[in-house]
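F.,

This is the one I mentioned.
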């Protein structure tokens, strides 16, 4: 399975959006984990990734959009799809999207299904559980625009 995204192991949270991106950055070979695999491949060059990070997205937002077919708890059954569409539209409307700014991506299961719907924002690696569009608006205004974590929505 091709991962939706690859991350440096939690030290810096740098995200790349394709395997091609990984291959295009030889310095990063072996330092990524997959959102689907959860397994650490190797240690990470923290300084390298922090430097690269500053030139890429200021905030990279990932929504779990996993749909379980067996009826067990999943983020899609709790409104993750609509929230994802809403945040993408709002980020675009506010002109926050683009290189050096904000990117909103879909992701697979984070393996915290009972706590969802969930999104996670890098590089801070802050996990949020949200309920409605008001929560999404608050995350955009507080976290993405003003760099202030919305403590009431944080999932530790
Ligand atoms: S379905 Fe969202 S964390 Fe598993």
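My design for it:
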């Amino acid at each position: 399975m091709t991962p939706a995204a690859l991350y440096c192991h939690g030290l810096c949270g740098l995200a790349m959006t394709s395997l091609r991106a990984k291959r295009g950055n030889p310095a990063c070979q072996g330092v990524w984990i997959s959102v689907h695999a959860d397994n650490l491949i190797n240690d990470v060059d923290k300084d390298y990734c922090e430097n690269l990070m500053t030139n890429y997205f200021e905030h990279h937002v990932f929504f779990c959009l996993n749909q379980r077919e067996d009826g067990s708890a999943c983020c899609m059954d709790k409104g993750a799809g609509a929230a994802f569409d809403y945040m993408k539209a709002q980020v675009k409307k506010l002109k926050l999207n683009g290189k050096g700014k904000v990117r909103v991506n879909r992701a697979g299961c984070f393996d915290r299904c009972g706590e969802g719907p969930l999104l996670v924002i890098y590089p801070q690696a802050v996990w949020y559980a949200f309920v409605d569009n008001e929560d999404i608006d608050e995350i955009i205004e507080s976290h993405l625009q003003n760099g202030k974590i919305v403590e009431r929505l944080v999932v530790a």
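Helices lie at 19-23, 46-54, 80-93, 133-146.

Talk soon.
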